[in-house]
Amino acid sequence: MKTPINALLEASLLRDAAEPFQ
Questions:
Q1: Which UniProt keywords apply (predicted)?
Q2: How far apart are CA 16 and CA 6, in angstroms?
């Protein structure tokens, strides 16, 4: 079970990784 902080970190990392493709 992920903590909210981990979820936020993962979301931000995924967003940063996807940014060049947008």
A1: Mitochondrion
A2: 15
